[in-house]
Amino acid sequence: MTGPVVRLRNAGLTYGQRTLWDGLDLDIKPGEFLTVLGPNGSGKTSFLKVLLGLQQLSRGTVEINGKPAQRGSADIGYIPQQKAFGPGTPLRARDLVGLGVDGNKWGLRLKRAPVRRRVDELLEQVGATRYANEPVGLLSGGEVQRLRAAQALATDPDLLLCDEPLLSLDLHHQQAISSLIDRRCHEQGSAVVFVTHEINPVIDYVDRVLYLAGGTFRTGTPSEVLRSDVLSEMYGSRVEVLRSHGRIVVLGIPDATTHVHGESEDDHGLA
Ligand SMILES: Nc1ncnc2c1ncn2[C@@H]1O[C@H](COP(=O)(O)OP(=O)(O)OP(=O)(O)O)[C@@H](O)[C@H]1O
């Protein structure tokens, strides 16, 4: 039997006086899609940084494929939170994707033709063929975001980390990228950790939720976690999870963040 891709034991992260989360025990298996939800500043990006080996835990342990998390792991693909390139960046769209294909094969670069074919295939999958030869500094935010997704998928990673990967994508490309990530997860067996403020575009793909808020966390299926009683307890004030036209609307979150979730409690018999 294969072990978990990610294993956290009694994991905690504290910055100064502020504990973001603590006592987190979590296994993420191959082919599992975990969504990380929570308000601004709750520690979602920090959680990804821990998995990337860029942030030390304050307590506990984190393992990726049975080894302590470390920087530059070839097992991990990462779609970072959106970053723009300067207008003069001397890199074409296809070069950025190509870095994902052979950029970490120290001195052992793949032959040019196979790399080109793989890059073309990835560009097509994210709908970026049209601008393959454009300098990245001239592309829109959404166009760059699609290249970042292609680059992260290039290595067939065991673990795919996605930090708000659908930001600035139109609906069509949100669906294209999220279903690409879903196929990588559920057909090819990558574990996916997907940080988002809006679960709606991926609700059909999510196996489990990690909800961070108020220095604490909850894990479970969407129907176990996205409930009035659970969120009210986490936020320490009354939060309403309402059903409306088959969607869940979360109201009353203290920092005025309102999540719209695309799943009905009815669908899970929680009414
Ligand atoms: N290296 C650090 N040292 C001290 N504090 C930090 C550090 N990194 C992040 N923080 C703080 O920890 C909190 C969590 O940050 P993080 O970026 O993980 O939140 P987030 O949930 O991803 O937020 P958002 O939804 O706004 O992207 C923030 O208040 C941030 O300022």
Automatic annotation (TrEMBL):
Q: Name one GO molecular function term.
A: ATP binding
Task: Please name the Pfam families in this protein's record.
Answer: ABC_tran
Alphabetical UniProt keywords: ATP-binding, Nucleotide-binding, Transport
Q: Which InterPro entries match?
A: AAA+_ATPase (IPR003593), ABC_transporter-like_ATP-bd (IPR003439), Metal_Ion_Import_ABC (IPR050153), P-loop_NTPase (IPR027417)
Looking at the record, the residues that make up the ABC transporter domain are 6-239
Q: Which family does it belong to?
A: Belongs to the ABC transporter superfamily.
Q: What name appears for this protein in its UniProt entry? A: Metal ABC transporter ATP-binding protein
Species assigned in the record = Arthrobacter sunyaminii
